[in-house]
Automatic annotation (TrEMBL):
Gene3D superfamilies linked to this entry: 3.40.50.2300
Cited InterPro entries: PTS_EIIB-like_sf, PTS_EIIB_2, PTS_EIIB_2/3
CDD domains registered for this protein in UniProt: PTS_IIB_ascorbate
Record's protein name: PTS sugar transporter subunit IIB
Domain annotation PTS EIIB type-2: ranges: 4-96
Organism in which the protein naturally occurs: Enterococcus xiangfangensis
Keyword annotations of the record: Sugar transport, Transferase, Transport
Pfam families xref list: PTS_IIB
């Protein structure tokens, strides 16, 4: 599996997305996922060169409508490591196709 870059983003780029980035990093370390994680507000999405955007479900829906090149991952419970792990595994499987 090659190395991937993900952007954790929310509308303002504070609070919820920062906590989500911390949890995603914990999951990445615990499972040795090949993922480098950055953090930004939604302003950072258009120029992001990576292949995955991790955000909250409502924002994920909006981003999917924009047909961005990245895989959009919506996490409902930002402190649920099992959900994060499952969603990341699904995203990796799609990216490796």
């Amino acid at each position: 599996m090659s190395n991937h870059k993900a952007l954790v983003a929310c509308r303002a780029g504070v609070g919820s997305s920062l906590m989500l980035k911390i949890k995603v990093n914990e999951v990445v370390k615990e499972n040795n996922f090949p993922l480098e994680v950055e953090h930004s507000s939604l302003d950072g999405v258009p120029g992001f060169p990576g292949d995955m955007i991790i955000t909250l479900p409502d924002v994920a829906e909006e981003l999917r409508e924009k047909n961005l090149p990245q895989k959009i991952v919506g996490i409902a419970n930002i402190v649920d490591k099992n959900e994060i792990k499952t969603k990341l595994e699904e995203a990796f499987a799609e990216l490796e196709k």
